[in-house]
């Protein structure tokens, strides 16, 4: 039994087995492009041929700096098919950061949206920059068709993505054909995301972000319809697309889900087609889970990391409890481990901790789609004999359910005891007057560290009642030293709360 | 990204992640053994340790000659965990055939049920025969526990199974850890068998048969409950187990499904828990599909071969038509190709045929769980540059739906035109007076070959009316030269109609 595990075969599969399933591109404004896997596959093999023709060699990095549109999805397939490595650049970074990353990756060619072109002023790839307008269409039209699978080994890289991380410079994570092939199967398991030919998936998560959770590959393998929302999608546009296209599956970060919910509540948009709203990137509040489920939309959480391709867990519950509160609490956990992966939690001395839901330790993950090094070998201390040290502190209960307690560096050490910033944030978010909240540590002369809370209120300008109600929910020694009311929390380039910035601002 | 694809990790996964999901063994009579993946995993690591202790070396063949009981399921996991190769012997073969196969495989140890022990009179494996009674329990009890994964490469064999084939001696098919690992993922895809932690699977297909379709591995990976019916399961016992255990998934050959349906109709057994009745091994009649679906049981078909681990297709229809007749006809097709595999149909000159539902050719299949040779290299003509020549003649339509027209050797060449014995059998089965039917070719002086029909009637002793009605359904030149009424059709050791025997009897 042989047969290399090449990511690229899924495009050919969709072209042959699901030629008439749609790919729908909203290109901003009223323009909507509709084509199908037959036409998509045709364009992909031409684009792959064109890349080779203009000088892209096997193993070369071909970067994208693009919004979520159909051409980006074509590049997802065509670059690995050409034998090259798709490098998705993050369009929310500064020109300086992009220049650093493109230089570090030694990108040979960059395909960029015209409105993002200015972010590449400091970058001069050997084969130039192709804009996703006429120049791109000329490439596709000229071909020639690239026949057959790429001349690559399954352990060669297919995709490269940089994680901004929280310390030091961004680091590259290289994904092998084999790793992504297996990750794609995992995304289609009945007990996982269960991506199926019956699905219409909407790509809200930016495609530059950790392969957008691997869903583009999974949808292609399954022959699901795919919908691209185009540049700058607003929640109004997302809601309207869900309604018009009868979207069944969509993933997003909790903050977008909050805004989308507000919009759906105000407008009464029909979201009844959704069989799965999948939240990832940070822990959703119980209130958010409850509110969506009250609208009839099943909510799941997937936990992962750029270093894990990215998915490691899913919260599908084989035997959900009748009690809605308990059901929502389980959805708020990070869920159970996907088949194929292994994990452990270890304390500071490297001792493995029991699965009792109480013992905490750093989470380590291992498996065929988990990185075993960074792109050029940086930060080797993050890897240990096949295990990835995630930097997350977690508990695992007897049923194998994960709860991320905190990032190792976000834990607050107060008088020798640990305070979880995540738990404190969730306690704040349970308050009706709190729209958003972040907790960071400030140095303290007596207790070493103490928490302070940065809070977005739903109108009130007085933090005292919020603190009073918080006191009823958390141990006395967890109570923040201070509450700062702000209009909005700063976000990182992938939409998470930027705690690095908050620390710099409030806890210098 | 590394991490070997070892089949054995799924047992450890079930032990840790689904410790309390049940394994239920009906041991004949009223005895029912209930334990769980926690206890099962414990016994498996002890059994694996015991195998090593008594002299089993990595790569050694350890054979089983067993019914479907919990000990057989333990051997499924323990033998590969010990680094050895599980060789499932077919208990329906004669002692001579078994002696040939055990000798060819060079089995070092055989674990056999006491009531099957006599079939091994001519076999003397180096490490002896262990009976699945006290001797087996002593092995498990003595251990020691084997820790960690086997010292094997993912391309090493984990399982070996012989296919009796239709010509020549039986041939061995070796399954690698990698191939079965991927096959296991495929069995759990949402668009495939969709084996899930919510399932309770009943193993009706004998575990000696092509890894019983890979379902034991899939159920273990998913953490599904597994039920073993024990020795000599009757349809009455199968029905009773489905009702008592609330079985959700069961696979079987069509002939068993016919008898089970009769029983359920007569007794009113509650089979409402079934979410999937999966038929495999031969093409079911439309009547059978309709009758089960009329009882509320969704019917699927999976097509495969021992050489394909065994599954290649599934008939889940993403967009089933409203018309029940058309729905049943689609279920009667062999379905669509599982992701990971590729196929083609080629004519006698090796020219690939179009997917138009009309053009026919021999079906070739390729992929990471498809054999690329027999165990000791026999019949190399069955393999062509990674492709398996299945020996089946098929059409594929524009939507990628397969229809097996016939076995290459079962096609009837009449006057330069081909008659499909399968199509003629289906036309006969559509007659209310026909319970079962087989068609074989007889030599003919003028037309080269002509079909004759061997028919099991539902009571009538006059074949003429059956022929009259058949004439309304098939072209005139398809009409059989003769109809032979018999009490029952002969079966092969895996439950298929034994056409070899019919040919010997009726078309010498």
UniProtKB/TrEMBL annotation, chains A, B:
Could you tell me which residue ranges the AMP-dependent synthetase/ligase domain spans? 11-375
Q: Which InterPro entries match?
A: AMP-bd_C, AMP-bd_C_sf, AMP-binding_CS, AMP-dep_synth/lig_dom, ANL_N_sf, ATP-dep_AMP-bd_enzyme
UniProt-listed Pfam families: AMP-binding (PF00501), AMP-binding_C (PF13193)
The molecular function terms of the Gene Ontology recorded here are: ligase activity, forming carbon-sulfur bonds
Residue ranges of domain AMP-binding enzyme C-terminal in the record: 424-496
Instruction: State the organism of origin.
Output: Pseudonocardia endophytica
Identify the keywords attached in UniProt to this record, alphabetized.
Answer: Ligase
State if Lyase is listed as a keyword. Answer: no
What taxonomic lineage is listed for the species of origin?
A: Bacteria, Bacillati, Actinomycetota, Actinomycetes, Pseudonocardiales
Q: To which protein family does this belong?
A: Belongs to the ATP-dependent AMP-binding enzyme family.
Its recorded name reads Fatty-acyl-CoA synthase
Query: Gene3D superfamilies per the record?
Result: 3.30.300.30, N-terminal domain of ligase-like
Q: Which domain of life is it from?
A: Bacteria
């Amino acid at each position: 039994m042989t047969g290399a595990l090449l990511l690229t075969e899924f495009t050919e599969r969709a072209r042959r087995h699901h030629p008439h399933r749609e790919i729908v591109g909203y290109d901003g404004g009223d323009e909507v492009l509709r084509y199908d896997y037959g036409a998509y596959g045709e364009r992909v093999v031409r684009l792959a041929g064109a890349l080779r023709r203009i000088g892209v060699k096997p193993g070369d990095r071909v970067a994208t700096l693009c919004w979520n549109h159909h051409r980006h999805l074509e590049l997802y397939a065509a670059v690995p098919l050409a034998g090259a490595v798709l490098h998705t650049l993050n369009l929310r970074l500064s020109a300086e950061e992009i220049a650093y990353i493109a230089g570090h990756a030694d990108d040979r060619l960059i395909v960029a949206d015209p409105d993002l072109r200015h972010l590449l002023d400091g970058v001069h790839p050997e084969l130039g920059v192709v804009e996703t307008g006429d120049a791109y269409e000329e490439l596709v039209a000229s071909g020639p068709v690239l026949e057959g699978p790429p001349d690559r080994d399954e352990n060669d890289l297919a995709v490269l993505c940089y994680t901004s991380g929280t310390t030091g410079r961004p680091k590259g994570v290289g994904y092998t054909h084999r790793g992504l092939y297996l990750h794609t199967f995992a995304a289609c398991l009945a007990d996982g995301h269960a991506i199926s030919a019956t699905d219409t998936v909407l790509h809200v998560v930016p495609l530059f972000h950790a392969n957008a959770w691997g869903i583009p590959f999974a949808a292609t393998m399954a022959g699901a319809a795919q919908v691209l929302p185009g540049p700058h999608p607003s929640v109004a546009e997302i809601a309207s697309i869900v309604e018009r296209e009868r979207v069944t599956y969509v993933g997003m970060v909790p903050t977008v889900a909050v805004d989308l919910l507000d919009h759906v509540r105000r407008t009464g948009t029909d979201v009844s087609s959704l069989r799965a709203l999948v939240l990832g990137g940070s822990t959703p509040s119980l209130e958010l889970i409850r509110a969506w489920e009250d609208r009839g939309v099943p909510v799941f959480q997937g936990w992962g990391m750029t270093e894990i391709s990215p998915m490691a867990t899913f919260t599908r519950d084989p035997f959900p409890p009748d009690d809605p509160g308990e059901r929502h609490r389980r959805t708020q956990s990070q869920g159970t481990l996907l088949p194929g992966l292994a994990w452990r939690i270890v304390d500071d001395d490297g001792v493995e901790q029991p699965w009792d839901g109480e013992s905490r330790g750093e989470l380590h993950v291992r498996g065929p789609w988990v990185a075993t090094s960074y792109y050029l070998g940086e930060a080797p201390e993050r890897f240990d004999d096949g295990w990835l040290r995630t930097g997350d502190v977690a508990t695992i209960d007897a049923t194998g359910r994960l709860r991320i307690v905190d990032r190792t560096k976000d834990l607050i050490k107060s008088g020798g005891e640990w305070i979880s910033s995540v738990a404190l944030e969730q306690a704040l978010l349970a308050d009706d007057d709190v729209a958003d909240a972040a907790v960071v540590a400030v140095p303290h002369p007596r207790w070493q560290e103490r928490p302070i809370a940065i809070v977005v209120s739903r109108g009130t300008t007085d933090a005292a009642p919020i603190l009073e109600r918080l006191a009823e929910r958390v141990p006395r020694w967890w109570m923040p030293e201070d509450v700062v009311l702000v209009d909005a929390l700063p976000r990182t380039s992938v939409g998470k709360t930027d705690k690095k910035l908050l620390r710099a601002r409030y806890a210098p």
